[in-house]
Amino acid sequence: MKKILLAILYLAPIYCCIAQDSDDAEDDNAIPNVVDSLYREDQFYVGLSFNLLTNTPSNFSQNGFSGGLHLGFIRDMPINEQRNIAIGVGLGWSTNTFNSNVVFSENPEGNTIVVVNPDRDAVDSNRFNTNLIEMPLQFRWRTSTPTKFSFWRIYTGIKVGYLYAFRSSFRGENGKVNLGDPDGLNRWRYFATLTVGNGSFNAFVQYGLNPFFNDLNTVENGTLDLQTIKVGIEFYLL
């Protein structure tokens, strides 16, 4: 028994040294946890909006659901050492639908005629759709860190859009009327934008700074100075 105890006391330090060397070898082979100190945030976005029209004629009404889909890429460029303040410049695409009682058509000379129809019972469906290429510019503030992926953000800025496709569609008692290029259409669109949120959920508002049309009158002798307000939710991805 005495010999066994002496053997254990002799071998124990040797075993401890071998075990320590083994642990050190495993640590050397482990994948290091690398922190990206030059990280960028929120470079892809997808948004869903509810679209409202403002500066409308007196007998105007908006009916049904008017919505939009917005997506694109924004290059995030931090401007401070903590990288929680940044400038964002990007490129995106947007499609929007507006349901209302504004009817677009053409006379035999090809001029646009605009009728604001207060009789909703005579209309089966009436809408116009827009597709835009958009260029957002944002000033970005957030509470992010290299290892914090859920944070508060406030992004504000402007957005310049080119309206490359417009189409109005009316269906009622007298048939269908479609129009693709009304007179006075402002192809260049300008918006003020604000996004506020935390984590995956973000609310945004986008206010149109210029009207849809220039020098376009309705048959009721009113000007058509429609502008937009879009409110919705936005999701950002790295």
Automatic annotation (TrEMBL):
Keywords: Signal. The keyword Signal applies. InterPro entries: Beta-barrel_OMP_2 (IPR025665). This is Outer membrane protein beta-barrel domain-containing protein. It comes from the Bacteria. Residues 1-19 form the signal peptide. Residues 38-213 form the Outer membrane protein beta-barrel domain. It comes from Nonlabens spongiae.
